[in-house]
Amino acid sequence: MSIVTIQYRLNTDEETRRHLWELMVGKNTPLVDELSKQVRECPEFETWQHTGNITQKKVEEICKLLKIDPRFTGQPGRFITSACLMTTYIYESWLALQKIRFTKLAGKKHWLGLIEEDVELAKISDFSLNTVCIKASEILAQALSQLAGNKAQGEAAGKRAKSRKRPKIDKNLLDTLFKLYEATEDCLDRRAIIHLLRNGCQVNEQEEDPESSALYLRKKQIEVERLERQLQGKLPQPRDPTGVETLKSLEEAKELPKHKNLTSLRLLVCAFIRNCYDMARNTQHKTEYVDLSILLIRGCYIEIQRGEAEFEAWRQELIPRLSNLAKIPKSLPYPIIFGSGDDLTWLFKAKQNTAIPQPVDQSGMSPMVSTPLRRSKKRRKRKKVVKQSERIFVGFNGLGRCKLEIHCDRRQLPLLRQVAQEYQINKALPDTEKYSAGLSPLRSASLMWKEDKRKFGKRVSREAEKPWNTHRLFLHCSIETRLLSSEGTEEVRQEKIVGARQKLEHSRNKTELTKQSESRLKANQTELERLSRASPPRPSKPVYQGQPNILVGVSFSRRLPVAVAIVDASRGEVIRYQSVRQLLTDRSVQAPKGKQTTKQLRLKEYRLLNRLHGQHKKTRNKGKNQQISQQSQSNLGQYLDRLIAARIVELALEWKAGSIVLPKIGDVRESVESEIRAIAEHKYPGNKTSQNKYAKQFRASFHRWSYSRLAQSIQGCASRTGIPVEFGYQPAQGTLQHKAYELALSAYHTRQTFKTS
User: Fold this and answer.
1) Which residue in 84, 318, 423, 606 is deepest, having the highest Cβ count within 10 Å?
2) pLDDT tens digit string along 495-550?
3) 168 has a pLDDT exceeding 50
């Protein structure tokens, strides 16, 4: 399933814009913020962080009590449902991240404990490297034989009785070694198992460098520290479209320290000066004046210390206030989510031409104008513009008769027209002939505000400064690309028929049915009846059929963006390697053009990569025009991402690959940052300034490539051609081409293992 999101701009009158802005800012956004607050205060919130999910049913239960609150009454029911959906989406993503962090932290702490124990065992034992390697070889052979025996036993049990449960098989050698480690208490055995785990389940007879071992240990400690800080990170922040919270944070950041002891300090200083003056005039009581002066000096010193302590406390409080000010909440209201295509209505209206052309006589004069019409000296050939004779309007469930006109690009117009026409056709059909809503390409939509970035003149009226005039309405539609062709629609229809039949069988097998279960049963029966009818007429587009044994492995690197390996996984052979230079070289250029040679023309796109890397180096220091330069770098990086994605998909089509395999990139930046920090601490121990400076220079030596953006570009380009995309773990060792080869092989073997099981 491939879903793309398309953006459309909406146009309507000012009264409708004002009404929508007030509903979304005054009612819906506060409701979402209050729901988020109630979710955080739930007693099960700590459990949800470990499980990584939250049910929409729980959010709806919380929302029932807030519906009757006067602050949130007066908004449509669809908006309340959208608030529940938005809160669920926000916390589903945040809780999933928390669960991943907890799992990673537990694994890294366990691994760090093994490494630290190995260091302690090496200190208290006198085993040589040769002795540890011999024992490691014995344990490795024992683990492999245990795995082979378990596999044979499982296959035999599966052949004897299919109904019996298969015994759990340790498919991973690492799991077996960890179990052996937990089962033994012998010092030599433990050192040997840790030796295998640290060397990729292999015996390494080379002496380990103590410096690199200490660096590796420190790197793992930094990874654990960073994960602990991330777990203590902030919860999802509320939005502030009215700007009240932003002004409050600004006032708190501007607050200066209160000098409570300033008056007493001034009195002590004045008394000290007066005492010195009296002592200079009267020498009879000199000893008494000296004692009094010492007391006054001590009092001044104590007051100065108190003032310094107060200033330090204010400075410590200022840091979190400034960090809160830096994280300014979003000033836009939450979007309104429509969970299905049934919540939208489409309408065609004839275009009204308001402009009346003026007649022109033979002399080029207009009877309405006393001056001749201007004629351009050079008439450029303009592209033929196909004028649309009709406009498309959209309505929303919960907004009554309010219809908004859609403005979009001509490339998106055919898709929009197809969705609107299918809606009109299905609406005109009787109930016995309607198509299933599950076959509509429009899966969901969201109505949102965005800031209008057009430049207005200096003189702007007060009405133009209203937020509903300085922001624009947009509609984001999620469309399933498979449902745009007749072949893909038939494939989806068959899948949904199988799912609907399974649901019906499950409902009929129940002994007692509640009212809710009976309504679901009727809905499933109606859905199955509509799915059994003919699919809506759609254009034909052949489904891509690739060879399942041919895979395109794509590996990511810190030095270069990508490397590609086309692999025949059934034979374990590499058909072709492609570096990033080969991907961006245009082989179609055969002759020079102007002053540029053939080689320059071929490497024109590859030189953009060097240009981007040079821009990253220049802007590593903060400057006045940093934001502008970062925007230009982002545009150039996005252009290169699309170029690389297009070339990778072209290779896959050329070799009829069954899939494209991308690496999972969750921990790339964390691992790099931990390694940089460990090297900086090793080079400059105890000097934070030098460590930060070195880390900054070290980061600049690598490219700042957006791996997630590149992966999304490859996924989007592959989805348009129908090539499936898989994900796997990229090896840490080896060349970039070898990593791509191993990545493709691992994805193929995982797929085969899944099929057999």
Assistant:
1) 84
2) 888 888 888 888 777 777 777 778 888 888 888 888 888 778 888 888 788 898 99
3) no
| pLDDT at 286 (0 to 100) | 56
Give the Cα separation of 420 and 413 in Å (integer).
10
Handedness of CA 392, 395, 401, 404 (dihedral sign): negative
Tell me the angle at which helices 77-124 and 210-231 cross, rounded to the nearest 10 degrees. 150
Q: Which two three-digit tokens encode residue 568?
A: 């025949």
Closest among 8, 11, 18 to 405, alpha carbons compared: 11
CA distance 276 to 289: 8
Q: Are 447 and 335 in contact (CB under 8 A)?
A: yes
Q: What are phi and psi of 393, to 5 degrees?
A: -120, 150
Instruction: Map 70-106 to HEC letters.
Output: CCCCCCCHHHHHHHHHHHHHHHHHHHHHHHHHHHHHH
pLDDT digits (tens, 9 = 90+) for 349-379: 876 554 434 444 444 443 333 344 444 445 5
Residue with tokens 């007051």: 303
Please name the amino acid found at residue 659: S
- State yes or no: pLDDT of 459 exceeds 80: no
Residues 181, 648: contact at Cβ < 8 Å?
no
Please name which of 214, 223, 23 lies closest in space to residue 108, comparing C-alpha atoms.
223
DSSP state of 559: S
Cβ count within 10 A of residue 85: 20
* 429-446 pLDDT tens trace: 888 888 888 888 898 899
**H helices then E strands: how many in the chain?**
24, 12
Distance CA 519, CA 524 (A): 9
pLDDT digits (tens, 9 = 90+) for 257-267: 665 555 555 56
DSSP state of 236: P
Is-contact 101 227, C-beta < 8 A?
Answer: yes
**Interatomic CA distance for residues 13 and 15, integer angstroms:** 6
Contact 463, 472 (CB under 8 A): no
Confidence of residue 660 (pLDDT cuts 50, 70, 90): very high
Q: Give me the residue label for tokens 């109904």.
A: 163
| Structure tokens, 474 | 């947009």
d(CA 722, CA 480): 12
**Residues comprising the chain, all counted:** 757
Partnered with residue 563 across adjacent β-strands are: 555, 579
Per-residue pLDDT, averaged over 564-587, amounts to 89
pLDDT digits (tens, 9 = 90+) for 122-164: 888 888 888 888 888 888 888 888 777 666 555 554 444 333 3
Q: Which of 378, 386, 438 is nearest to 417 (CA)?
A: 386
pTM to 2 decimals?
0.73
Q: Cβ neighbours of residue 726 under 8 Å, at least 6 residues apart?
A: 551, 659, 660, 661, 662, 747, 751
Beta strands in 580-716 (DSSP E): 657-663
Question: Cα–Cα distance between 131 and 141 in angstroms, integer?
Answer: 16
Sign of CA dihedral 479, 482, 488, 490: negative
- 536 neighbors 438 (Cβ within 8 angstroms): no
Q: Secondary structure of the chain: what % helix, strand, coil (to 5)?
A: 55, 10, 30
Instruction: Report helix, strand or coil for 731.
Output: coil
Nearest CA to 263 out of 298, 292, 303, 301 is that of 303
Question: What does 545-562 look like in DSSP terms, one character per residue?
Answer: --EEEEEEEEEE-SSSSE
